[in-house]
Each structure stands twice: as structure tokens, then as C-alpha cells.
Amino acid sequence: MTDAHVNPVNPDSGQDDLPEQMRVRREKRDRLLAEGVQPYPISVPRTHLLKDLRAKYDAQELEPDTRTGEQVSVAGRVIFLRNTGKLCFVRLREGDGTELQVMFSLSDLGAEGLARFKQLVDIGDLLSVQGEVITSRRGELSVQATGWQMAAKTLRPLPNEHRPLNEEARVRLRYVDLIVRPEAREMVRNKAAVLKSLRATFDAHDFIEVETPVLQLTNGGAAARPFSTHLNAFDQEMKLRIALELDLKRAMIGGVDRVFEIGRTFRNEGLDSTHAAEFSMIEAYEAYGDYDTMAELFAELMRNAGRAIGRTTITARDGSDIDLEQPFRHATLFGLVSEAVGETVDVTTDVAALTKLAEQHDVELQPGWNAGEIAVELFEKLVEHTLIQPTFVRDYPESARPLAKPHREIPGLVEAWDLIVNGVELGTAYSELNDPVIQRERLVAQSLLAAAGDPEAMELDEDFLRAMEFGMPPAGGMGMGLDRLVMLFTGAGIRETILFPLLRPE
Description:
The chain is built from 15 helices and 18 strands. It has an eight-stranded mixed beta sheet, with helices on both faces. A five-stranded mixed beta barrel has the order 1-2-3-5-4. A three-stranded antiparallel beta sheet has the order 7-9-8, with no helix packed on it. It folds into two domains: 3-163, CATH 2.40.50.140; 182-328 and 389-497, 2-Layer Sandwich (BirA Bifunctional Protein, domain 2). It starts with 17 loop residues before the first helix and ends in a 9-residue tail after the last helix. Residues 1-16 have low confidence and may be disordered. A hairpin with a 4-residue loop joins β1 and β2 (87-93). α5 (174-180) packs across α6 (182-204) and α6 (182-204) packs across α8. The longest helix is centred in the middle third of the chain and has 23 residues, at 182-204. By secondary structure, it is an alpha+beta fold. Mg(2+) 1 binds at residues 418, 425.
């Protein structure tokens, strides 16, 4: 039985028939109360899960009209109801999506009992049912009901195939979307499976999971516009974190050599199909690692997560297949830009030459950008969207990654990569800068930009610099957008992957 049987209407206060349907359902609630029956009892009988009965009896391939003799009490939401005649049929669904048919007959409930069932039960109600496990004449596993109780009376009707939830309502009324659409329920479970796999992979490599503060005094760890708030207890202006980096590095300095966090971060920027104001990030830091060890770890995290939900081969936006089991490509940022513009560009190419290339390829630039910023903009506008197969784009200009370590061979570059898959950035990693003197210079430069009005520039974090002065080991660090990883596996937009995304008020 599918969700096409769900009935009746879209829960939208603009529907003319909604007030009537709600009035009828409220009257049924009132009748239960008048009978001395709670429409929302503290508990109801439940001896078996529907999935357990399915697992036990589906494997036995019972003949039609089989009576097992097993008495059970099950519970679930009514998603299908046919309540005419002497034999009524209900389909119950559990939270995991398992469904089971229940049969209410005149012979088992009596005339008064069957009439009461017909008068009180609607699609959407949560019921507890007692009876014997049987198979119907058509061979369908069922419970032949001898009794039932209301677990929770539903006062609003559900959507149906004639009046389904539109795309906006699916997000705004996510709880209804979960009831009626298996894809929404699958998304929740897939994301949970991905999280479980990620944690297992980190654990296999002896990483320790920690939690760090959401409220921050300064804006650091990324280039993004923060949310601001006020802590009344300290009479102190605070910010919601835009990244997890600085506190995780403090932990590593303290001796937590392999540390990671999966946490919510907040960026007060634009919203679109790949960006949300509140989202989940994963960051990890490995003492005595570098950006190469992080690339190996990142690829393993992705492959294991894909295996966990059976999606190591993904259909790309151009219709091709992305096979995560294959080795990931490595390429340099300047090498890719050179291919795109048809001439050699490297870290020594000056602002004038890069500006001319931007004009030739219709890439808009901001006044005052340095050569590194222009090179990154050329990459993002000309190359990034073309990278379908997983590609580690390596070796960024120093000005673009102020928290990364200078390149071991090429002056002016830092050891950093972004992983691009299906034309979208999925994560980043550095050989982490651990010289506190150079780190101070770069953060001072960033703080001057912030003071000049750049809302995305990092501020000077004296406590972080003090921690670095106690000695931070050479390390590799990585960050991954959890929601973007799930988007890659499922092909959904970011609003679909976040259970309850931020929306404009109705």
C-alpha cells in the first residue's frame, strides 16, 4: 500500500473545507471524552513492532486464510481506511515506514463496536489494535482486530494525491511531509546513517569527538558574515560561530592529537540551493598530519558514508556517473585556471595580467582585490562548476587561505585544497599554520580588513594566538559540509537535507 491512499486534504487554512473537517474531528474527540475515554492517553497496549511481525511472518510465506494463533497488540498511524460494510480495513504505519493491514469485522467487534469504530476513527489517527495475526483471503499479512484504543486523535486532515503538499509546504510543514512521503523519511534515515558512518571512520582512526562553544567573542576560522547576539549575564556582545576550527586547534594544542567535531555553524549570508544560514559542519585535526593525510581521510570518509547507504555511484548533473570507489583526481588551482584561460597562470602572475584575463572571460572583480583573490575568482567562475568527478584542487595563493601553512616547495602558495564534486565544493583541508608569529601577522591583516568594513574578514583572537604560543604541533586539518555530502548522495537541495531549515515567516 502506498502513500497514494492518504486522504483527505492539504493542511492549509485557505482550504474552504478544512474548518468543516476539523470541526468533525473535534466532535469525535469530544465524544471520546464524553464516553470517559482519553483521546490522548498516557500509554496504549503495544506488544510487538510492525517490523518484527513483518520479519517473522513474511519469511514464512503463509498461505491465504492462515490463522497463526498469535495474539498481539500493535500501534501505528492510520494511512488507509475503508470503513463500509461488515468488514473494515485499516493500514497502519510505524515511524520507520513499516505498514501492516488490520481487519475490523462485525463478528469480532459486534454491531455496536464496529459502528463505534466507523464513527470515531479517521485517516491520520494513531491507533493501538489488539488481535490475532492472520493472512487475509488474498494472502496479505494482517491483524484480525478484537479490540482497539485511540493513541492520539488527529484534528487536521492529511494531504492526498489530489491535493498534495507543494514544494514550499513540504519544507514548512516538514512533519506532515514525513507522514505522507517516504522520500522525506528516507532522507532522515540516510542522514543518520551517514553520520553514524562518519563517526565510525573517525573512531577507526583514533579521533576523539568533542563539543566546542557556539557562542564566540570573535569571528574566526573562516571568511563569512556572522550572526550577532548579546549575553546579558556579561553585558557582552557575542557572535554565533561560523566555523569550529579555532577551538579544535586549542584542544589539539592541549594534547588531543586527533580531534573532530560535528556541529552546527551559522553564517548570516544569502540562502540558495547550496547555502543555509544554519548548517552542520565536520572539522577534524590530526597532529603530525598534513593536507595529504587529510585528503586520504576525506576520501575514506566519503566512501564509507556512501557504502553505508548504498550510494557509492552517483548520477552527476550532466548525467554521467560519479564512482566514489575510484581514485580521486588531484590538480592545482593555477593549473586548472591556466587550462581555462588558455595560457599559463601561476603565483607570479601580477594583478594587471589577471585583471586582463578576467575582462576577457567576463569575470567581474571587486575593486582592490589582490592577485590571489583574482586567481581564486577566476577558478570559481570558470572552472569550479565544470569539475564533475571528485577533484582535490590544491595549492592556493597565500592571501586566500590565511590559516594554512606556506607551501613546502613554491613560495607564495599555501598547502590547502578544496574538494569539488559535481561542480560543488564539498570540503577543504590545510597543512595547518602553526607558527604563532606568522599567524599573528595574517590575523592582524585580516583584522584590519574587518576594521575597514569587510564583514567576512576574521577578527584578531588573542586567546587563540596565546594558545599557539604554547606550541601547536604540525598538523593537517579538514572541514566538510555534512548537508552538502548528503545532497551529493541524494541529489536533493539543501532545504531537503536539513530536517527543519530556517524559513521566512508566513
